Amino acid sequence: xxxxxxxxxxxxxxxxxxxxxxxxxxxxxxxxxxxxxxxxxxxxxxxxxxxxxxxxxxxxxxxxxxxxxxxxxxxxxxxxxxxxxxxxxxxxxxxxxxxxxxxxxxxxxxxxxxxxxxxxxxxxxxxxxxxxxxxxxxxxxxxxxxxxxxxxxxxxxxxxxxxxxxxxxxxxxxxxxxxxxxxxxxxxxxxxxxxxxxxxxxxxxxxxxxxxxxxxxxxxxxxxxxxxxxxxxxxxxxxxxxxxxxxxxxxxxxxxxxxxxxxxxxxxxxxxxxxxxxxxxxxxxxxxxxxxxxxxxxxxxxxxxxxxxxxxx
Length: 313
Fold this sequence. Notes:
The chain is mostly helical. 75% of the residues lie in helices and 5% in strands. The protein contains 10 helices and 5 strands, in the order E-E-H-H-E-H-H-H-E-E-H-H-H-H-H. The chain has helices at 21-51, 58-87, 94-127, 132-135, 138-164, 181-186, 193-226, 231-259, 268-292, 295-309; strands at 3-5, 11-14, 91-93, 167-169, 173-174. 32% of the residues are buried.
């Protein structure tokens, strides 16, 4: 095969979700709708939390950061896919591909860390309500969020730099709708052992920490809920937890299938479908499950919309 150094590559080709021309308009409309709903819903939630002083609490501080991460998450991949469908050009520059890889890795891991932090917040609130204010101090909240941003920025930079050291063959077609790490590794003509080792060790360790935090937090939460004497109270608490865990399971389940499955079981089609689930579907669901079903958020949104409709004197 013809070899080319990565520095000489000017562009890759994103094959997208479908090669059928008649499906392109449907995909464009569907993903444009989901993108607008995701970005619009999350920005409204952020504005509502900022505008309402009653929502300046640890839980809503984490919700605001999750909403920001979701909006950035989908903005990393979906706009480029929509642009490719609209102009019927599937090319993405080398610099653009590595930039997309960096920000995608940043926000996908940030999402995982924030979900784990929110689980810990709910654990303290339900299991130790009298100590909640003291434990979840403003300093700790800022530290948890800042540490999540910094660690994942460095983690993403590590993957991007390692990808930059690879050499690629003349084949530049990526069987995906964005520059994900596994499809890029499959195009490499050099041995990607170091890259795969980092994925399974550093990435696996980060994912394992998040999963363990979720499991331990919700185990204690469920045990505490079982002690609630009211059946109605138990049902309400379990309903809230099941909604949260459904999104957590969807996000972690599909992402682990994509990144930590054995190479012999991987396929481009399965990987693409799983990627759509956690890169597009999960951010669409998050505003509804975490925030829009919340009475405080809905009340703040109504106030925000009502104030915006009142004409200024």
